[in-house]
Structures are given as C-alpha cells and as structure tokens.
Amino acid sequence: MASIVEVTAETFEREVLRSEVPVLVDFWAGWCAPCRMVAPVMERIAEKYGGRVKVAKVDVDAEPELAARFGVSGIPTIAFFEPGEQPKAVVGALPEGALEEAFGLRRFLGEAA
C-alpha cells in the first residue's frame, strides 16, 4: 500500500516545506467527486515514486487556512513543492501521465521528463 501522508497546519512545514525530497500535495475534500477520482492516481504515484517524491493530502474542510495560504480556490488542486523552487499547481482530476508531465516527475525515476 502506498504511503500517503495526511498533512495538517501543524505538520505542513515539517512534512512539506522542510522535506528533503519533493512533495506532491493533494488539496481535497471528502464530498468532492473529482477528488475521489484522483485518489487512486495519487496512490499509484506514491507507489511509483516511493522515497523519491513524497505524496501528501490536505483536507481543505479540516485545514481551510492551508488552502487559503496557497491560494487553493478549486479542488482537487495538486501542488508540487520542490526544495528551493516556487510551488507549482494544477487544478482538476488529471490522469497519472498528465500529472507526471505537469511537474516533470519522471526525472526522479532517472527517465527523460
């Protein structure tokens, strides 16, 4: 089973901002059908990139201040936090390949982006 970290306002800095590996963060809510559609995609990415890219989830209903802090106005929003870089984000239930391409994830597997 993939290891996806549930992140809160209290753990966000440690788990995401100070992470030594890039972090893909899924801003979601339980009532959001597209969020439920993207959940298995996030699990596959967590398995595929285990140890190279961390996958985290933020429940926007439980953590509205985090959503506001990062300008999340639609969900699912998938944000990519890479050490030393500005975060990048996409909105919507994108397939695995589209997420990999949007953030250049394949380079973490040693493949061409």
UniProtKB/TrEMBL annotation:
Feature type site, description Deprotonates C-terminal active site Cys: D26
Signal peptide, first to last residue: none
An annotated GO cellular component: cytoplasm
GO MF entry, a single one: protein-disulfide reductase activity
Domain Thioredoxin: 1-113
Pfam families: Thioredoxin (PF00085)
PROSITE patterns on file: THIOREDOXIN_1, THIOREDOXIN_2
Catalytic residue positions: C32, C35
Site feature Contributes to redox potential value, where: A33, P34
Keywords tagged on the record: Disulfide bond, Electron transport, Redox-active center, Transport
Annotated S-S bridges: C32-C35
Alphabetized PANTHER family for the sequence: GEO12009P1 (PTHR45663)
Family membership noted in the UniProt record: Belongs to the thioredoxin family.
Protein name as catalogued: Thioredoxin
